[in-house]
Structure formats: C-alpha cells, structure tokens
C-alpha cells in the first residue's frame, strides 16, 4: 500500500506514543544523565544502521545542521531536567511549534494554515494548565537550556523536511553517532546491572530508534508544523506513564491541560487527514 498523508498522521501518533515512554524509563535508570544520553544514542545508532543499511553516507550541510540539532536537543533537555523541574523542562522545550512556524516560513516557505494557528491557540494555554501545578521559575539557567532544546528540536524538524526527497533518516544517524561519542566516556564509568541494561536497550531500540525511524518516514508526507503539533502528544502522555508505573500523580490542572492539548492535537491531525 503506497504511503499517503493519512498514513503519515497515524505513524506520527505512534511515534509520539513511543517517545512519551522515555520519562518513566529514564527515571528508573540509576545512571548519570550523560551516560543515559550516550547509551541510548549508541543503541539507537545500531537501529538506524540496520534500517538504513547505508552503502555510503553522504554528509550535506542540511544533515549536519539537523544532526547538531538532534544532539543538542537531547543533551540540553537532559541538562535542563537536572537543573530545573521536569515540568519546566518539558513545557519550555515544547514551545517548539513557535520556532517551527518561524523556521518553516523562513526556510521552507511553508505558510501556516488557519488550522495550525487555531491548534496553537489551544495547545499553548493547555500546556500551561498541564504544568500549572508545578511551574516554578527556579533554575533560571535550566529554563534557558530547555528553551534552547526546543529551538534545537525545531531545527531537526525543518532539516528533515528539507531532506525529505533524499533520506532524512541519515540526519538522525549522524545525530546519534555524535551523541553516543559525547556520552561514551560517561557510559564506560557506570555500573552495568541487568535492569539498567534492559532499560537502556528499550530506550535506544523502541523509545528513540523505532520512534525516529517512523518519524523519518512520515515527515516526507506531512508539513513541518503539523508534524510538530501531533508530536505534542509526547509531553502529555509522558507523565501519564510515570503515574501508571511509579504512581507519580498529576494534579487537577494538569489533567485539564492534558485534555485540552490532546483534543487540539487530534483535532489538527483529523483536519490534516481530511485535506487532499
């Protein structure tokens, strides 16, 4: 069956669900953040090599920018999570749609549609509601790093969209290679008990590797901003998995925010599927 826009929307929702499982597994791993970065990226790199099976890797300027965005998005977010609250980090990172609008218009000449603006009008207040129970302005530097992580994620989206007619997955391959090299010295220093190994294997294979393989396929058939809006499901589902496994309970305002954002994202996805 040939790939089309409707299939791409479904694939992006699957990718968002996989990505959202990262928080609960990262919480259960006892390693330091740089070691988690390196271990997860190393496993994901193997997944990408199996998927792409590149006979030769062509390095272009777009792929270099995308790989740098990928590496810094992960590194900055992990650092931000250590320096500020998890709520601040995830909320500030997911101001990403704002940067995708700007970069998408400037680089891709993709004019935002009315449905995009309507979705954003619900998503941003909804996310504020979601984190209103624990949105504190401590850890100023951590907050800045989380914002920069959102900018880096927007760079990934736009670069993969630019590379959609070639092989956007190569951007992720390069990004994982860079992240694994940075985290390798920290990874070697950690203890390799069974549970940590199993958790990192899941994170690299499914939460990161498979999720971005799916994303690299779907991004060829959907606009950058719409893909970002669908992936906003990740920060909403992330704390829900944490609650189910670790019993870390979201507050009432957070649940209202989750309902608003999920409705907005699914509404935009439905509108996209109706377009021809």
UniProtKB/TrEMBL annotation:
<feature type="transmembrane region" description="Helical">
    <location>
        <begin position="64"/>
        <end position="83"/>
    </location>
</feature>
<feature type="transmembrane region" description="Helical">
    <location>
        <begin position="194"/>
        <end position="217"/>
    </location>
</feature>
<feature type="transmembrane region" description="Helical">
    <location>
        <begin position="139"/>
        <end position="159"/>
    </location>
</feature>
<feature type="transmembrane region" description="Helical">
    <location>
        <begin position="171"/>
        <end position="188"/>
    </location>
</feature>
<keyword id="KW-0812">Transmembrane</keyword>
<dbReference type="Pfam" id="PF00892">
    <property type="entry name" value="EamA"/>
</dbReference>
<dbReference type="GO" id="GO:0016020">
    <property type="term" value="C:membrane"/>
</dbReference>
<keyword id="KW-1133">Transmembrane helix</keyword>
<feature type="transmembrane region" description="Helical">
    <location>
        <begin position="229"/>
        <end position="246"/>
    </location>
</feature>
<feature type="transmembrane region" description="Helical">
    <location>
        <begin position="89"/>
        <end position="108"/>
    </location>
</feature>
<keyword id="KW-0472">Membrane</keyword>
<feature type="domain" description="EamA">
    <location>
        <begin position="141"/>
        <end position="266"/>
    </location>
</feature>
<dbReference type="InterPro" id="IPR037185">
    <property type="entry name" value="EmrE-like"/>
</dbReference>
<protein>
    <submittedName>
        <fullName>DMT family transporter</fullName>
    </submittedName>
</protein>
<dbReference type="InterPro" id="IPR000620">
    <property type="entry name" value="EamA_dom"/>
</dbReference>
<feature type="transmembrane region" description="Helical">
    <location>
        <begin position="33"/>
        <end position="52"/>
    </location>
</feature>
<feature type="transmembrane region" description="Helical">
    <location>
        <begin position="115"/>
        <end position="133"/>
    </location>
</feature>
<feature type="transmembrane region" description="Helical">
    <location>
        <begin position="252"/>
        <end position="271"/>
    </location>
</feature>
<feature type="domain" description="EamA">
    <location>
        <begin position="8"/>
        <end position="131"/>
    </location>
</feature>
